[in-house]
Design a protein that fits this description.
7-stranded antiparallel sheet, alpha+beta, single chain
């Protein structure tokens, strides 16, 4: 590939990840995301290989490819407007408060995703035995809700049952809803 074209495309993909981060930071509700900027965004090829990342939180970005790979192994069919959510540390997550979202980017005329975008944000609470979801726990179940890869949005329509399940297991559902919606907006 022409080195000039490669550099142009590299910067274009990085700008997508950066723009996702701007949207997420500006629209989030919680201080964790809005003020501490505890989130990360990246772009991936259709096979799950990371191609660009914004200059966000390195630990998020180091583990995010494993989460994207777990999503690709779990989800068989994709449609434009889909969005998968997960936080399972055994599937590439970092810890339960870091909720990851993965969305396909389907190029017009293609039948499968050519790219994926992903974001990971540290939510202030995901349930568990203590506020903040980072207790001195003996088991992961004490830390909060474990979310396996599941479609939160199907073809542009939010799965309200999945969203309700998440929000019923946290102490601050309105703030969580706002932060989840901010992540979803970043993907759009």
């Amino acid at each position: 590939m022409d080195p000039i074209a490669l550099e142009i495309f590299r910067n274009l993909f990085i700008s997508v990840a950066e723009e996702m981060g701007v949207t997420l930071g500006r629209t989030a509700y919680s201080p964790n995301i809005k003020e501490r900027r505890d989130f990360s965004c990246a772009c991936f090829l259709g096979n799950g290989q990371m191609i660009a990342q914004a200059a966000h939180i390195p630990v998020h970005l180091g583990a995010m490819p494993a989460s994207v790979q777990a999503v690709l192994e779990t989800v068989a069919a994709w449609a434009p407007g889909d969005l998968v959510v997960l936080n399972d540390p055994y599937l590439g997550g970092t810890h339960l408060p870091d909720i990851t979202m993965v969305s396909p980017v389907v190029v017009k005329g293609e039948d499968k995703p050519s790219f994926f975008v992903a974001s990971r944000a540290h939510h202030a609470d995901v349930g568990g035995m203590s506020p903040g979801s980072m207790p001195l726990a003996r088991e992961i179940y004490q830390e909060g809700l474990i979310i396996p890869p599941v479609k939160l949005v199907r073809a542009g329509s939010t799965n309200e049952e999945v969203l309700a399940l998440i929000l019923r297991n946290v102490r601050t559902p309105s703030e969580r809803r706002g932060d989840l919606k901010a992540q979803m907006a970043a993907h759009r």
